[in-house]
Specification:
GO terms for molecular function: oxidoreductase activity, acting on the aldehyde or oxo group of donors, NAD or NADP as acceptor. This protein is of the alpha/beta class and about 550 residues long. It is built from 17 helices and 16 strands. It folds into four domains: about 180 residues, Aldehyde Dehydrogenase, Chain A, domain 2; about 120 residues, no CATH class; about 30 residues, no CATH class; about 140 residues, FAD/NAD(P)-binding domain. Helix content is about 35%, strand content about 10%. Strand 3, helix 1 and strand 4 form a beta-alpha-beta unit.
Length: about 550
């Protein structure tokens, strides 16, 4: 987390004012292997947890604690598996690991090895630079006989160095593992269930991985689970075999979410047909499928929208057992926000340790030491409070940068009455500046939107290079595109919903359409026409129209 000091307000900075700082939880992760561990699984997990990213991630293992009864077997098998890996050129198909990020990182690995060997540790494999490959390449290295006096046991190496140390008892292992000032991740290998519970409680780290080399694992599968479950069997093979078609289908769609899109009218179906259609897409999962695949007018017509809301309310009543919780969960606004469809979310509220508070009925009064105090005096006791207060979408990050165009005009000044950009990629008065994921791009799946915008930007750059001209969009073209975006949302319920889509979540911000609602296909068609016409929305470097 970093706090950015304001360069235009220097009187606020200094010893008693604001200071730019950088805070990091840190790593130095321990990996504990007990005598009862599954040896082969422990070795496989150790390889993953230690050497991913060539040991340069914050959750990579830095210290291995191996119980003395299994130490020799683990060390032997671990070294065997490490020796099967290859540090090399990424273009070589046999390469498994690449270089370190910096020369300083290599120097630190060497320093830790020298210090450990000088204190009677032994190099079991590796330990050398690979100069033939470059300055930043270093062998995957394993040290044996490590003790807590060595730098590698105290400082995070952040490199391809595994340090193996013995321990006798569980209490000793926990004490030594916790003897660091940072604590992001930890790993433990044991088949003893009771020990697993003890370790999860006693290891002072933000994350504890038990019998796995990864901190975040796949979600458990569900019968009807949309984006969050396992990838269905054969899906990856289908994508690989039809890769170009998958992209083309996305380019030819409105939303590019990989779900069928229909023009079917909700109110033209009978009540029975409507419920059957809604139930089908609900069971298939994916909130965007629910919004766009059953009927094509849920975001355009109030009657159709209310039918969708009624169905969702009925599903909540069906799933959530507590009427109070169900009432709080039911939609009261238009179904025109980010779509929510069942993914196990509603079932969560049947748990005793999961509750929901409707802030529309009782607002928050203040944060107190015990937790949150409501307006009616109720205090909800909490151990941890996470502030999920929203985000400044689309233009927010651009506004944090000191971007200036002609005459020193800033992007903040340019967007003071609302963020606009010709085709989402360019602003008048800012020559040769191209935006990716800028304001008023297609309202659709962002990877496909970004791909489409980058295609357009690429053609602009190629045109500028071939003509040796500066690309600067005209104010008229930018305004016309903004008007086009306004027109694309006419009649849509999105316009009637107070949400981030129109900037309503940002206090004091001018609201307006952040997107073009005509879809990906029509955006790409428009861009192709602009390219074919010789980029009429841009001026030449001498100020004349193209």
């Amino acid at each position: 987390m970093s706090l950015r000091a304001n360069p235009l307000n220097q009187e606020d900075t200094g010893p008693r004012g604001k200071e730019p700082i950088l805070l990091e939880l840190g790593g130095n992760a321990p990996f504990l292997v007990f005598d009862d561990a599954d040896l082969e699984n422990a070795v496989a997990c150790a390889i993953v947890a230690k050497f991913k990213g060539t040991g340069q991630t914050c959750v990579c293992v830095n210290r291995f604690f191996i119980q003395e009864g299994i130490y020799d077997k683990f060390a032997e098998r671990f070294v065997e598996e490490v020796n099967k890996l290859k540090v090399g050129d990424g273009a070589d198909g046999s390469t498994t690991h690449g270089p370190m990020a910096t020369r300083a990182g290599v120097d630190k690995v060497e320093e830790h090895i020298r210090d450990a060997v000088g204190k009677n540790a032994s190099i079991l494999t590796g330990g050398q630079r690979i100069p033939d490959l470059g300055d930043n390449f270093f062998q995957l290295t394993v040290l044996g006989g490590v003790n807590d006096s060595m730098k590698v046991a105290k400082e995070e190496t952040f490199g391809p160095l595994a340090a193996l140390a013995k321990f006798k008892t569980e209490d000793e292992a926990i004490e030594r593992a916790n003897n660091v000032e940072v604590g992001l991740a930890s790993y433990a290998m044991t088949t003893d269930l009771a020990r697993s519970h003890r370790l999860s409680e006693k290891l002072d780290f933000g994350m504890v991985a038990l019998n796995t080399g990864t901190i975040s694992d796949w979600a458990a599968p569900r019968v009807h689970s949309h984006p969050y479950g396992r990838v269905p069997p054969g899906y990856r093979e289908m994508v690989n075999e039809n890769y170009d078609k998958v992209w083309e289908d996305a380019f030819q769609s409105r939303t590019a979410f990989g779900v069928p899109e229909t023009d079917r009218k909700t109110m033209e179906a009978t009540p029975e047909e409507r419920r059957e259609a809604f139930q089908k897409v609900w069971d298939q999962g994916n909130g965007f499928r629910f919004m766009f695949s059953a009927f094509g007018d849920l975001t355009d017509g109030r009657a159709a929208n209310e039918e969708a809301c009624n169905f969702i309310r009925s599903k909540i009543d069906e799933i959530v057992k507590d009427p109070r919780k169900a009432h709080a969960l039911k939609p009261r606004d238009l179904y025109a926000r980010r779509p929510l469809c069942d993914s196990g979310y509603y079932q969560t509220f049947n748990r005793d340790n999961a509750d929901i508070v409707d802030l529309r009925e009782t607002s928050i009064e203040q944060i107190v030491p015990e937790g949150i105090q409501m307006k009616d005096g109720t205090i909800h006791q909490l151990d941890v409070l996470i502030f999920a207060t929203g985000f400044d979408a689309i233009e927010g990050n651009y506004l944090r940068i000191n971007i200036a165009g002609h005459g020193g005009k800033t992007i903040q000044k340019h967007w003071q009455h609302g963020a606009t950009a010709y085709g989402a990629i360019a602003c008048a008065g800012f020559p040769n500046m191209f935006l990716v994921a800028g304001p008023q791009g297609a309202f659709a799946n962002f990877p496909v939107v970004i791909e489409s915008e980058v295609d357009f930007i690429t053609e602009c750059i190629l045109h500028a290079e071939s003509k040796q001209r500066i690309m600067e969009v005209t104010p008229t073209a930018e305004q016309q595109w903004s008007d086009f975006c306004d027109k694309s949302v006419e009649g849509s319920l999105f316009k009637e919903t107070s949400s981030w889509v129109f900037g309503a979540n940002m206090k004091g911000r001018q609201t307006g359409p952040k997107f073009y609602f005509g879809g990906v296909k029509y955006y790409r068609d428009w861009a192709r026409k602009e390219i074919a016409a010789g980029f009429p929305g841009f001026n030449a470097s001498d100020g004349s129209s193209r």
